[in-house]
Every structure is written in structure tokens, then in C-alpha cells.
Amino acid sequence: MKFTEIISIAGYSIESFGVLVVIVGSCISSVSFISTFRQLPEGAAYRNYRRQLGRSIILGLEFLIAGDIIRTVVVADTFKNVAVLGVIILIRTFLSMTLHLEVEGKWPWEKE
Q1: Is residue 111 part of a domain?
Q2: How crowded is residue 84: how many other Cβ atoms within 10 Å of its Cβ?
Q3: Distances in whole angstroms, Cα of residue 41 to Cα of each of 3, 36, 72, 106
Q4: What is the pLDDT of residues 50-88, one digit of tens each?
Q5: How far is 39 from 103, CA to CA, in rounded Å?
Q6: pLDDT score of 29 more than 80
Q7: What's the pLDDT at 21?
Q8: C-alpha separations of 16 from 7, 87, 110 in Å
Q9: Which domain holds residue 79?
Q10: Number of domains in the chain
Q11: How far is CA 57 from the centre of its chain?
Q12: Residue 47 domain-assigned?
């Protein structure tokens, strides 16, 4: 097996793990919401659900970006592929930052 094939498999594995993080996080958040929505004050269960779900999505996006970087830079290092990677990273970073603002109520660079 060639080095580039191994790196490609590693990139896809990391991306797959990112998808798995989103799926498992969504399931755990949903189960937690269903089990607590009648016990918590009005709106608190929903806010917790959104926070947990948002964190799962943010973490999954980080793994997806890492997998994209590995595959694009090592395996397919043409200018076109690097440009597409740049656009994908910009979009995913924007999503991650806005989700962080939504979940935490502050930008990632702001202090407590």
C-alpha cells in the first residue's frame, strides 16, 4: 500500500469519526432532552438540548475539517483542490463560529 493511500484512508477515517460524533451527540442530546423536559423549568430543557446539540455539531465539524485538510494537502495537492479546501474550511469555520456564538452566547475569542 502506498503512503498516499494510507493518508487518504486516514483522512476518510477522521471524517467518518466526525460524522459519528455528530450522530452520537445528536442521539445523546435527544435522549437527554426527552428524559428531562418535564422535570426542568419551562425552556431550560430546550436550552440545554440546543447547547448539547450545538457542541456535538461543532466537534464533528472540527473532525471533518481535519480530514479534509489531510486528504487534500497530502493526497490531492493541486491548486484547484487546495482552493476548494480553502472554501470548505471557510464555510465550516463560519458555521463553527456561529454555532459557538449560538451555544455559548459569546464569540470563541471572548473571555468569560
Answers
A1: no
A2: 14
A3: 55, 10, 47, 24
A4: 889 988 998 998 899 899 888 877 766 678 877 888 888
A5: 22
A6: yes
A7: 97
A8: 14, 20, 31
A9: 3-104
A10: 1
A11: 4
A12: yes
